[in-house]
Specification:
By secondary structure, this protein is an all-alpha fold. The protein has helices spanning about 5-10, 20-60, 75-105, 110-115, 125-149. The protein has a domain at about 45-149. The chain is rod-shaped, with a radius of gyration of 23 Å.
Length: about 150
């Protein structure tokens, strides 16, 4: 009879509580935070650049000496695409962050974590910033979209 997927993954490796494994766990945990912060920076740039490109190219079209644009609504579509990419990047980053965090705090790694899950430092500041940035992105997206229609 075949083992369940959980039993196979639990038997995949043996966890030994040593100083090396504990500090490896800590490095992995901090790497997860750095990855999340990189996602936040990337999403901020995408959302900000998407909104800025709409504003800049629309103001450029208002200059009296400027030649009329071939596709006057192209800046809005480009801006909407960039803003949507930033929002989707954040949503996927939050999902990846939470999934990996649950994995690191699973029963397999409690011995090397050095603390119980209840003693874990909270991760709500990172999640709060990500959710706030998603709200900013949604505001920018709908501001551009409603101006377009």
């Amino acid at each position: 009879m075949a083992d369940s997927p959980q039993a196979q993954s639990a038997n995949r490796f043996e966890v030994k509580a040593t100083a090396d494994s504990h500090f490896s766990w800590v490095r992995t945990r901090l790497s997860l935070e750095r990855t999340m912060m990189a996602w936040l920076r990337t999403a901020t740039v995408l959302i900000g650049f998407g909104f800025a490109i709409v504003q800049y190219l629309n103001h450029l079209q208002e200059i009296p000496e400027a030649r009329p644009a071939y596709l006057p609504s192209a800046p809005e579509y480009l801006g909407l695409a960039l803003i949507a990419c930033g929002i989707l990047a954040l949503v996927s980053a939050i999902w990846q962050y939470q999934w990996t965090l649950r994995y690191l705090w699973s029963d397999s790694f409690v011995a090397i974590a050095g603390m119980r899950k209840e003693e874990m430092p909270t991760n709500w500041p990172v999640a709060a910033v990500a959710v706030l940035l998603i709200l900013v992105g949604l505001f920018a997206f709908f501001a551009v979209l409603l101006r377009l229609t």
